[in-house]
Design goal:
By secondary structure, the chain is an alpha/beta fold. It has helices at residues 12-23, 35-44, 57-64, 81-94, 113-128, 148-154, 172-184, 203-214, 225-234, 239-255, 262-268, 275-287; strands at residues 3-6, 27-32, 48-51, 69-72, 99-103, 132-137, 156-159, 191-195, 219-222. It binds NADP nicotinamide-adenine-dinucleotide phosphate (NAP).
Length: 288
Amino acid sequence: MKQVLVTGANGRTGRRVIDKLLKHGASIRAFVRREEAARDMLAMGVGECLIGNLESEADLYRAVKDVQQLVHICPPMHPLEDRIGKALVSAAASSGVELFVEYSVLHPVIEVPHHRRKLAVEAALIDSGMPYVILQPARYMQHLNPIWAELLRDGRHVLPFSTKTRFSLVDLEDLAEAVMRVLTQPHHAYATYQLAGPEQLSMQDCAQRLTSLLGRDVEAIERDEDSFRKVLEASGAAPERIQTMLTMNRHYSAHGLAGNSNVLRWLLGREPTRFEDFVTRELLAKNA
Ligand SMILES: NC(=O)c1ccc[n+]([C@@H]2O[C@H](COP(=O)([O-])OP(=O)(O)OC[C@H]3O[C@@H](n4cnc5c(N)ncnc54)[C@H](OP(=O)(O)O)[C@@H]3O)[C@@H](O)[C@H]2O)c1
């Protein structure tokens, strides 16, 4: 059986990807950075854990040894994402990895720092000659989860960018299934797949849908940049990360982030999840 390395294994995306892969019977090596995370992963059913630092080339070489496939899920907005990705591409190519799945982002070409760092990794992967799949996911519907309690309490859907620009919000469950499919089905090598949800939704559109689902008014509110910056500073975020987030939010306010769902529909063999169905399944049912 093929051994699959998953980086960022203990994160929000990594865990859902691993869950889908385990249900499919895959053999997994999880790259984590803490003992505690390794214990959790083993309890989930992962066969092998490697505790390391993605910033260490030696750890990357250890991680790819004897794996046939890998999915690289870099920590979000990591300032060294380009360097880490390129080093992992070199390590994987030299160790004969048969398929490298890069978990990138929708529209890596836009002028937002972490998109550009992912673009550099995509280029290195294409140039490597190694079989690859580049996945370009849109913004997650799951961004609603951490603000759900506040939204229910105040009837306000607050995010730090325009309430009017549109996003092809996508369900992380669909994305995890798509990752599992490109790893376990043949014939995806050398593909770049845009993975976007089925509707272009603004925060106002989401608030309207939530109003219907909850049977009470939900208002979309744009949090201003200064107050958002203060929240980030108080949370101890590094200045570079704060700058990246503010640049991203300005871009979102000006342009949104829209894509097309045809490829995701084809990969899943069904309709991608709609916003109302996500809210019903992941938020209303669990909190009922
Ligand atoms: N959110 C979106 O809408 C969206 C859309 C498109 C693409 N993406 C991409 O999805 C990817 C994953 O995001 P996520 O939200 O799943 O991330 P996450 O939940 O923050 O998980 C990141 C994981 O990386 C681990 N990590 C951090 N630094 C590390 C290091 N130096 N060495 C080893 N491991 C390290 C963390 O370990 P600990 O568990 O120990 O903290 C954590 O498990 C990102 O690349 C992001 O750009 C996200």
